[in-house]
Each structure stands twice: as C-alpha cells, then as structure tokens.
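ENTRY TYPE: paired fold submission
RECORD: A
CONTENT: sequence, then structure tokens
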Amino acid sequence: MKSASEEPVPLHEEFIYCCGAATHVLKCGPWKDLSKVESKNLPRLLFMIIPGNPGLAGYYRTFIQALYCGLNQQYPVWVVSHAGHCKPPSGMEMVEDTDIKELEDVFGLNGQVEHKLNFLKKNVSKDIKLVLIAHSIGCYITLEMMKRASELQVLRSVLLFPTIERIAQSPQGKLMTPLLCKLRYVLYMPVYLLSFLPEGVKASLVRFALRGMKTCDESSITTSVNLFSVDCIANILYMASQEMMKVVERDSTTIKQNLKKLIFYYGTGDSWCPQHYYDEIKMDFPDGDIRLCEKGLRHAFVLDASKEMAAMITDWLQDDLTKL
C-alpha cells in the first residue's frame, strides 16, 4: 500500500434528502453512482465511513482522501453525514429522495441507523462488498446495521474508539448526561445569537476553541463553523441525549455473530470509552481483533490525526484486499 499522496484527490460533494432529512455526502474517487447494477465499471468494494457525533461529513474530508490514496485509488471511499447534521449551502439545490419514506424520528439514534441502511439501499448496488469504518457512536450504528440487515455484504467493519456500551457511565458521559438530557435547550439561544456573526468571526472563534492543539486539520475548522446553526446543533444534541440513555449494554450477541469481520480500536486515555471497557471486551472475546492505541491518538482523531489513522487502517486491511 502506498502512503497518502499529496496529489489532488477527486472529491465529489452532494447534499441530498434521505428519509426526509438533509444529508451531506462526500465521495472520493471517480465513482459518483454505485446504484446501477448493469454498469461494467462498478468497483468490487466500497469503503463507507459512519461518523461519530457531531456527524458532519466535512470532519472526515482529510481522512477519506488519505484513505483513498492509501488504497492506491482503487476503491471509492464515501462518508455520509448523520441525518440533519449538516447545513446545506444557500442556493444549492437539494435532491429530493422520493423512493424512501420519511422516518418518524430520523434524528434519533434508531432513525440514524435506518437512515444509513436506506442510503445504502438507494445508492449502492447489492453486488458491491462493503468495508464499514465507524467512529465513536458510529460503531454502535454499524453494529445495529449488521444486526438488522444481515444481507449486507460486509467484508470488514473497523470500529474506531467505539462507544458501544455504558456511555453515560464513562467519565465524559457522567459530565455531559445532565447537560444533554435536561439542559440542552439552554444552549439554543447563544447558538442562535452567534449564528448572526460573520463567517470569518465564527472561524476565529473555532480556532480559539482549538488553540490547544499543535496542529489542527483546516477542514475541521471550516466544518465546525456549521455548528453555529441552531437546526444543526439541535439535532446533534438530541441524538447525543439519546446516546446517553439508550447505549447501555454491549451487544455481545451481534459481536459474537460477526466477530471475524470486526476490528476494534480503543484509546488509552479516552474519556468516552475508558480503557477498562477494552480490558473487559478483550477478556470476553479473546479471539477477536481488539486493539489498544499505542500512539496516544485522541477520541476525536479527525481533528489532528486523520492521515495517521488512514495509514494504520490500510495496513490492517492489506490481507483482506489481496484476497479479493
């Protein structure tokens, strides 16, 4: 595998409706449409990123570009935002999805699972195998997808910093649960007022908030400006409140059924997913591919370590890809 190239990478951007919710899709590679079964140019494999929360696709821009290059530009790499976690540019025409019904609670945790399954059903041929790369709460969503749609041709699922159990009991969860479940509405007014600031001022505020980082991905700064949208932040906080309440017990049954397809990657100082969660799942599944970070990467790796993470994943998947 080659390391991530510095050459320009073909990147296609779409804003669509999926299940009635605004959705942002970033696609790396020349393949823009993978739904046409009769096409002779369909790739054998799609790498699809299931984001954490906030689930803005832009946070993963550098990551998918580095991953695409690390894969020798042989396979498409897509990231699909969570439903409602995006602010479509003014004047950009939205593509209405008329084939899939609206979900009753598409912005909730269950709705986000169905949102991803419906996106795949509508946009990706059943003949294409999948590598699902999930981050944080995206790991819970991915396990649910595999549980609900066993017909998916999942070659591998890579679960990065997986928040798949006892989130509210984690150090960060104990701090955030009262805020998210009882006081999140208090945040809407300051966000509404800040939304009127010029874009340059918003970007400066983001840079100030991230000033403690030695290096910060520029696309993360640009993407974070979207957090000044009340609609966007309301959907993000609503989903987060459900995570605290609903992600309690680890789904060991689904993990056991798919163990050979799963790679887990836990952090050593992850306040959303403490190390003893790693110790316990490692003990319960001694034959699983369950790894502990030795590089000191943060839970929100997309802020400053996208290329490093992409390089590791391409290395992990080498054997699987050579067998295709």
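RECORD: B
CONTENT: sequence, then structure tokens
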Amino acid sequence: MVAEEQNTTFQVGVILDANSTNARVGMTSLSLALSDFYSVHRKYSTRIVLHPRDSRRQVTTAAADALNLLKDVQVDAIIGPQTSAQANFVIGLGGAAKVPVISFTATSPSLRPQTPYFVQAAINDAAQVDAIAAIVKYFHWYRIIFVYEDSDYGNGIIPYLSNAFQEVNARVSYRSVIPVSANDDLIIEELHKMKKMQTRVFVVHTTTPLASRIFLKAKEAEMMSEGYVWIVTSGLMNLFYSLEDPRIVESMQGVVGVKPFVPRSGKLKSTTTRWQNKFAEINPGITPPPEINLFGLWAYDTLSALAIAAEKVRFREPTYLQNTTALNSTNIFTTGTSQTGPKLLPEIFGTKFEGLAGNFELVNGQLQPSSFQILNVHKKKLRQVGKWTPLLPSSSSQRNANMTGFLGEELDQITWPGKSRNIPKGWEVSVSGEKLKVGVPAVAGFPEFVNTTNATNITGLYIDLFKSVMAALPYAVEYEFARFVKPDGSSAGSYDDLSQQVLYGEYAIVIGDITITANRSEYVDFSIPIEHGGVTRTQKIQYDDKINSELFFLKPLEKELWLTAIALFIFTGLALWILEHRVNKAFRGPASEHVGLIFYIPFMSLVFANRERIVSNLARIVIVVWIFIVLILNSTFTASLSAEFTTAKLEKDHTDVSELIRNNDYVGCRNGSFVYELLKDLGFNESYIRVYKQPEELDEALSKGSEKGGIKAMFSPTPYTNLFLSKYPKKYMKIGSPYLSEGFAFAFPKGSPLVADVSRAIIKLTDNHTISAIKANWTSQFNDNGPFEPSSTSISLRSFTVLFAITGGVTGVCLVVFLVSYLYKNRDFVQRISSSEMITWSKLRAMSRHFDQRDPNSFRSGEYASSRHQNPVPAEEIPSENEDNAGLNSDHKTEEDAHGSSSVQVESSRVV
C-alpha cells in the first residue's frame, strides 16, 4: 500500500465509438497493454489511468468528450479520437490545452500539419499509395476509377493517389464520390454509371461500413465478375476478419488490397491468445476475431509508448494553469493549459521500441511505415500474393522506372473476381457488348488506300494495316466498318468532319488516310503514325531543248575524254603505220598517203570497215586491242547520246513557291484535305487554290497548266504523291523538299485505352516487318525515289582510264618489241652509221631512209602470188621498181633492196 501511494498517476482520456469494431478492438488492446506493461515494469514509479468516453460516431460528441476530459478530469494525454473528422476538432482542443492527442485509427494525411500536439500513432494513408500504384504498374493498367467516401478520411488520400498514378503513367478517368450517408439507391446508380464506362479498374477508399454496402451492390450489378479489378486500401484490409456478415466476404471474392506488413513473432503469438480472452471478457456475446487487427496492434503499442514516456517525465503537475481570458469568456471551448503535456510530448516523440506491430518510431509525429503486404481475398481468408518495399533512391532513374518494389519483382497468381485467373486488361472495348463501329472515308485519296465501292467488302492498304494491328493486340476486339456517307451514298463531309464523328460518339475509331493535325488532336487521340508524313509539291515535266545546240553531239563525253581518245587514236594509227610500213604493201607510198593511213585505219575500225590487210603479228595485236576499246567506247557513246535525248528537267520558270504566288499561278490539292489550309498558310490566295476529288482530275489539271484552266503545281501528302507518280511516272515529278507534317494514323476518342495498345502493336509490327510486307503487297508499283533531279550524263575520263591504259600499254610494248627486233636485225648497218663521221642530222636521215625501205623477208613472191590470187588487184595499181625506190639515195642501196625489187617485179608480171 505504501508503494502504491508513492506512484505518480498520469490521467489519460480515451475517445472511441464504443459500439464500433475499432473501439472494441482498441479498448481490448489498451486494457491488455496496460496490465501487461506494469506487470513487467512493477518498479516503475508512474502509473496510467484510463478515462474512456463514447463519441457515438458523432463529431460533436467527440468534441464534448474532449472538453470534459480537459476541463473536468484535466487529463495529461488523450488517446483517440477514432475518425479523422472527429480528430479535426479534438486535436485543435488538445493543441490549445497543450495536451498530446494520440490517435491509432485516424490515418488521414491532412491531420498532421494542424498542431504539434497531434501524434499519429498509425501509418499515414499516404504511405500506401505507392504500393497501390505498383500493382497498377505491374499489370500495365493505364486507366483508373477512384471510389471514395465524401469525408475527411476519404478526401485526404486522393491527392496522393493521383500523384502516385501519374508517376506510373496511369490516368484517373473518373472519380466516384459517395456520401457516408448514401442510401442503396444512390450506390446502385453510381455503380451503373461506372459500369457504362470502359475502365474496369476501381480503387476503393472508404470506411468499412460503406465499403461493405458498395461490394454487396456491386455483386448485384454483376460488377464482381470476370474482367473487373477492385483494389482496396489498408483501412478495409485491416478490418477484413472483423466483417460479421458472410455475404460481404462472399461479395469481395477476388478483391486485391494492401496492408502494412506485420512481422510474425513469438510475442505476437502469445499476446494474441491473451488478447482474445480479454476481448471475450470485455465484450461478452461477441466472438473474438481470429487475429488482432492492425488498429489493435497500434493501440497496444500506443499505450506502451505513453507509459514509457510517462516514466521518463515522472512528475505530474496536478492541475492546469488557468487561462485568464477564460474567466470572463462565454466560449465553451476555452480551457486551461496543461503543465505536464509540454513535458510529456517530447518524451513520446523520442520513444523507440519493438512493438507488436513492428518497430515503433515517430518521425514528425507520425508512425513510420516499412513495407506492405499485397493481399487477395480468396474464400474466407486473405492470401498474401506479394510484398512491397519502397524503392530506394537510385543513381539510375531508368532502373527505378522499370521496377515495382515487389519482392522478387513478381506477384503470386491472383484469383480475380469471377474466380478468374486470367489477368484483366483493365478496360472494355465496348461496354455494351456490341462491335466497335470503325468509320472510314467514303472517298479516299486513292482506291488503293481505302476502297469503299463495295460497302460490304471495304478493302485497301489502310484497311489491311488496321486489321493486322487489331489482330496483334493481346485481346480480341470485334469491330465493323462503316462508310462516312449521307443517306444517298455520297460523302458526308471532309476528313475533319469524319474525325469529329469520334467526338460525337458516332464512331469508336476512324481509320484511313487521315493525317495527324493540331486541330484534329483537340477532339481525338491519335495512335502513333502508321505512315510517314510530309507534303510534297508535284509539277509537270518539260523536256530540255538542249538537243538543238550545234555541239549537242559532244555532250555524251567529257572534254578530257574526247582529247584522250583523239590522242590515243593518233597514237594507234602511228603505231600501226610503223609496224606495217616495212612489211605491208598497203602501207607503202608517198608521204602524203602515210599521213592518211595513220588517221584512216583507226577511224575505219570504228565501223569495222578497213579493207587493208594486216600482215605483222604485232600490228594484229594492236588492232585487236584497239577494236575492243572502240567497241566499248562506241557503245558507251551511243547509250549516253540516247540518254541525253530523253533527259528531262523542270522548266526554269516558276519553280519556287514564292514565284508561284507572285505570278498568280493556280495550284491544286485534294478536296477535304488539310493541305488546303497549309496552302493558305504558305500565302496562296483562296481563289488560286483548286480542289479535286479524283487522281484523274489532278492529272488533267496538271496537264493543262495554269494558263489553260488547270494548275501549275499539285500539293499533296507524300503517300499520295508516291502513288500518283507511280501512275504517271513520265509526266510529273516531285519538286523541292517536303513540308513537314505528321503522318497517317488511327483516331480514337479522347482518353481511349486502345490508343496505347494499338500504338504498341504498330511498333511491334514495324519491328517484325509485317507492316512493310503489307505495304509492299499494295504499293509494289510505288516509285519513291525522291524528287527528280536532272543531272549530266556525260562520261568522264575516269571511266576509261583502265581501258586506255591497257591499249596504250599494249601498243607501246608492240612498238618496243618491233624496234628492238629491227635494230637487232640491222645491227651492222646501225653500227656503221653510228661509227661514221657524219653529223647527227645526217645519221638520222640515213636511218630514216633505211627504215623506209621494204623488208626483203616480207615480200616473197610465193606469199604475194597466193594473196593476189585471193584478192586480185589491177596491174596499174602495182608500183614499178622505180616507183618503189623513188626518192631513195642510190648510194645507199643494199643487196636486200635489189632482191626486194626483183621479187616485186616477178609478182607484178604474174598478176598481169
């Protein structure tokens, strides 16, 4: 008794909703913790006395209870209140009285900043948003619907959830705010509204009573079936085993939720047994839950922390300081100021220990989270399918971007609503179950793009591309094509009008040769381009008149090649004369004939018409190589000359857009195309822009020209231009560089989840070349060689360098061999000349006369007789002996000369 009288007693108020599950669990934990703590710490000089109050689920009652505790009991701390709405009032009163208010159930993130005397001994709701977003990221869901109650508890988490989903590229498509007092009809109405939306992923953040009603009605609305995803926050998961109605548990089958992770320990196991006995003692007639929920664990740790802090303070001031302004004030909320509270608060903040719920540590007045369990409602239990831990800051943002934080970066298999094990895609293509209506233009730029002639069998390049993309999606999508036509079958409008039908809900998708523009993107979302963009200018080809030039025939070969060929021409003729002059009768005669032969033989080789018989083998080698070169040179010249006759280029006038505008030339584009606005932006007056529907009309207009009622230039998207030029390749050509624009794409309603999946399918088909193959199948005749750029076809010397080197080398070698042979055979004569005392010029003249003489070994009678019988020549054409020796110095005649002359005479007489 003496020891008890010496104990310092700290007065602690408790404000809870007595008839709620959290209150029963909380009071059981507080009572058990109180007895457990002081049974272990018997020597402590302080004791805590609890003063419970019932707030009856009312904010005003909670405030009144707090005033009673502060004014009448003059408590040193308040545990509670239970809800965030109640806490908003109570923590203000506690702050004014400087009394710590410690709540283990009020988890709203908006509570903490109000006053330093509020202690959140529970994990803040904002701590779980990253774990929920990780689930969404893991399953690649990109559209979410929030379902939350209209209260401080419900509203407090929404900004944090929105930011978390934004981090994982998920969009909140709708927010369903349900009042706490909502009746069943309102809940059903809201559920049906959400059912009509495409999104099938719902994140629910409400208190347990409201959540129970939502899931019961969702099951009635058939929204707990396959394809739906329901994710709940920790508040509902914490109280799952406290749900008394089995129908609620049945309606929640397949739900996924998060819950702060609680490490299993021997202390927790032994405490649970004693806790269940205590619960049954305090709440007779109510079956104890199979485990202590998280709020019960936090309540147990809260009282332990408060008892430790009280022991550190030790001394308690028995009364509050009186507020002097309160004596004459009629404000019922005015209280005194606690002298113990300011001492107790820092001790609470500094208390750290290993509690039943894990590590108890307060940072900035809040319990710090560690990791979260990912739970799946399966039958009557919560099955853990994964564990989430916050990602640590990394030097590689890309690495964190690809991670979720789950243990092993994976989750166990989940049983989804409808007992399905197939991962839901998170949205429905058609909420009504009908086929998607896909709009196509009634008249496309070319029938090769979209052909709607047969309404029941629409074909074309972009139809096939769309079909292949939809087939590549990871799920089946049923659709049907619909032409954008009036009742009479004519086109219902422009491409802008067609795109707007998506906004009006007439079509779910619009496809075809539809260009991405800024204006259209205001009311539709486009996939990534299925075709490259750009606007090109097309004009008529005019053939060059350079063939009327006097020197046009010289154009095929460059000047250097002409000069080299002429030099080689002369060199070859001279070589042939040298090689044949001493041995061939045809190469003899006066000097004037020698010059003629030098030019005659190589030239006649160009047409293979030379009649002179080649006797020398070396000359034959030279003539063969020369003819080979002549053959190639002649063929190249002929081909190049032909190309020059067909070379085309655009006329020099009006090739610049500014000149087209300045000269008031008419230009054209397709009717209904965005190019019309582009031309206006470029500076063209509307009156000079003509529109056409069919390619044939554009062809006719370009052919006429601006002066004859047509157009000077056509402006069209690059895919149109490519196909147009493939139809008329010799009449028109691209001019200049394309104007930048986006490509062709598929149009969807704003926010459609199909956009991301279709874009990924396009990328996939592009990578595996499927799209290229489809385009090749339809556009094999396309000619996309870029703008036509006329260029010179003149052949350069470099093209014949090797051939000319060969013929020059062969000819030179033959000449060297001949001269060496000549000098060797006449070495005696050469030696006499070189050793004589004549001057150099006389020596050269003597050598020339000797070389000019006939080679006696080559004019044998038998050889010439046989040759003359094969090719008879008139006798008068055979020169006489005197003619053969005319101009020669008789002093230098040799025995060989006489022998040669007699041979020729014999030959001549035989022919006659």
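NOTES ON RECORD B: The mean pLDDT is 82. DSSP finds 32 helices and 28 strands in the chain.
STATUS: closed
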